[in-house]
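Hi all, posting the design record for the shared folder.

TITLE: backbone redesign
STEP: 1 of 1
STRUCTURE INPUT:
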């Protein structure tokens, strides 16, 4: 359920809002041991199962989610973790994102609260010159990656919609995830195809990602339960290595993992009032 207290108000400059958070990637724990033989599922069947997982999730009501985004660069590993709830019918959710400073015990770091809605991301406790208690609103289609990881998390809606662009997939066997049997699929997604085939409210966002990422192909691991619901997905992205690094070339590799559990939980997302949305300049990270 979405409570629309205010939708208008300023839109912050997207690149400045999140430049420091588009690092990223890694996994949430939980899987163990290969089970059923993988040879009895054809590539066509695997592709169909992965593509259908996005459709099934859209009909799955609500769930809890955990996210992890990790990047290793120059010998330094940065991990951003999040947890929250999502409503797949409304395509909205609320996340509490923990930045590395808080995870390592550094004082002065507060979790960022994120509200995910179709086409927009709201962030509170963003820092970077944003007054305490104020929200920043970002049009996700204006972000270089369509907010796949810029906000410090890949929301489960976007993670699932990416799978609609599956181009190759193989069945890797059955595994146990949080006490349930899931089927593990591995393959590649074409970002441009995902943007074309996604649910209409996700197309602009994924089209931005297809233009902004270094590679149009994304490697994934997807775990699907016996009802066909996506329970965990890991994507491996590549970003141009340009932000804040003049003269440096190459790519930044990012791994983002999204886990889904606790289906059926109540979800209410209350959007901020217009006067609570910060419209000033965001300080460079």
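Okay, here is what came back for every position:
SEQUENCE:
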């Amino acid at each position: 359920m979405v409570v629309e207290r205010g939708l208008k108000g300023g839109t912050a400059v997207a690149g400045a809002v999140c430049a420091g958070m588009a690092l990223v990637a890694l996994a949430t724990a939980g899987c163990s041991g290969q089970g059923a033989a993988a040879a009895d599922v054809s590539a066509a069947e695997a592709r169909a199962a992965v593509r259908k997982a996005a459709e099934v999730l859209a009909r799955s009501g609500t769930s809890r989610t955990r996210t992890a985004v990790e990047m290793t660069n120059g010998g330094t590993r940065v991990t951003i973790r999040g947890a929250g709830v999502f409503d797949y019918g409304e395509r909205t959710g609320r996340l509490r994102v923990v930045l590395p400073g808080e995870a390592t015990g550094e004082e002065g770091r507060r979790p960022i609260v994120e509200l995910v809605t179709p086409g927009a991301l709201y962030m509170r406790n963003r820092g970077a010159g944003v007054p305490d208690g104020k929200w920043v609103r970002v049009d996700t289609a204006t972000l270089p990656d369509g907010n796949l990881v810029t906000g410090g998390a890949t929301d489960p809606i976007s993670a699932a919609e990416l799978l609609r662009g599956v181009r190759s997939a193989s069945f890797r066997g059955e595994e146990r995830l949080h006490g349930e049997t899931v089927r593990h699929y591995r393959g590649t997604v074409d970002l441009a195809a995902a943007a074309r085939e996604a649910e209409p409210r996700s197309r602009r966002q994924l089209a931005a990602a297809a233009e902004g990422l270094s590679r149009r192909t994304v490697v994934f691991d997807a775990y699907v339960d016996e009802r066909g619901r996506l329970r965990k997905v890991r994507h491996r992205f590549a970003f141009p290595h340009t932000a804040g690094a003049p003269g440096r070339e190459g790519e930044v590799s990012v791994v983002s993992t999204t886990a889904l559990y606790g289906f059926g939980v109540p979800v209410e997302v209350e959007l901020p009032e217009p006067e609570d949305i910060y419209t000033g300049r965001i300080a460079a990270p």
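COMMENT: The first helix runs from residue 14 to 18.
Let me know if anyone wants the other runs.
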